[in-house]
Design a protein that fits this description.
The strands form three sheets. A five-stranded parallel sheet has the order 7-8-9-6-10, sandwiched between helices. Strands 1-2-3 form a three-stranded mixed sheet. The chain has 20 helices and ten strands. The chain is of the alpha/beta class.
Amino acid sequence: MEEIVKKWEEILSYLKNEYAITDVSYDSWIKPLELFQIEDNKLYLTYGGEQSTMTLGYVTRKYATPLKVTIAEITGIQFDEILVISQENAKQINREKNVVSINMEETSSFEANKKMGNSSINPKFTFDNFVVGRNNRFAQTAALAVAESPGEFYNPLYIYGGPGLGKTHLMQAIGNYIGKQNPNTHILYVTSEEFTNEVIENMRTNNNASAMQRFRDKYRTVDVLMVDDIQFIIGKEATQEEFFHTFNALHAMGKQIVISSDKPPKDMETLDDRFKSRFDMGLMADIGYPDYETRMAILSKKIEEKDFNLDESIRKYIAENIQSNIREIEGALNKLIAFSRLEKIDITMEIAERELQNFISPNISREITPQLIIEVVSEHFNLTVDQMASKNRSSNVARPRQIAMYLCNTMTDSSLQAIGLLLGGRDHSTIIHGANKIGEEIEKDESTRNLVETIKKKINPN
């Protein structure tokens, strides 16, 4: 046992080199693994990253066997099985059984467009420069899993969210990653508009049958098909029919399909049920609005990329006031950079407020979203958003969390599942319980009623 502990860092390093695991994959899947216990000749590992069942299952399927082989080669110890479990399950095991966890304290800590097939994929969109926050962690994890093993696990991958939140970045990051790892892979990225235009153009040609056959050969012989903004094909009968048969052909051959949209299939009222059922065959991954910490991280990343200096107070001003999407944050930054370089002066708060007045309009009521509510509640109780999403059950955290549940449930149309995801992956029954508890207190207790009304005015001052 001691040998595995002592050689754990060597084992991981050997695994990375022997199986040609990229830096981003290593940091996402391998580095967060920690030794937990050995029982019945099974090695149990905990995973320190995203704690979803999807992620744990993927890490186990993808890396358990290579890890088992690597351990055997370096230490000579043969395990029947390697299992990756959540940190919560590990705590539960320790509570229920008198087992000895492996002590890791004495070990070291884990230390111009590019053409692919017939599509243009922007090389600047990678996983390395995608800023991960609570609003997009699940989607990023799913996208990376697809990029590592196209066609194997989540097919199709359906990414949805509002405009400017990073859907296109993630899709093209998949393409760039696959293209780098497997240069011979035929990857095709198109927008639904491009797909539609090709269908119309080929149908209008004199030799219609021949043109449509070329179109089908183009789309049905790829290894990876990515279609951005799929919602725009709704109502276009000929386009829908071509996409339906293209989807079926590729899926039957085990080819990877990645789709993006502004909403989940169930919210597309005029979408045929046959499309909904096929999209449901894979994995749905949503991207929400970035919280304050993520907006600040994105802004800092963009500033670094553009080699520009911007005072911390101005960064906070932008992050606090532009909450809708990443595209607007980048647009605001670009405007300040252009002004600074044209006028040859540094940006002050006065200049920022004046130049960004078209981006930041304090008098216009902001969209009320669960993310906004959680941020306001956190600020009111001097908590961080991460504390609100944590497992902490102390009253000074649990009560604000329940108030957030109540306000999200009563002030937005978001589903209980979506609210639960923003609050640390809690299930719908927990959200209902928390919301009902605060609702009952409001009816009985005037101080609670006043408290909630105060927070509501902060959320929506108008």
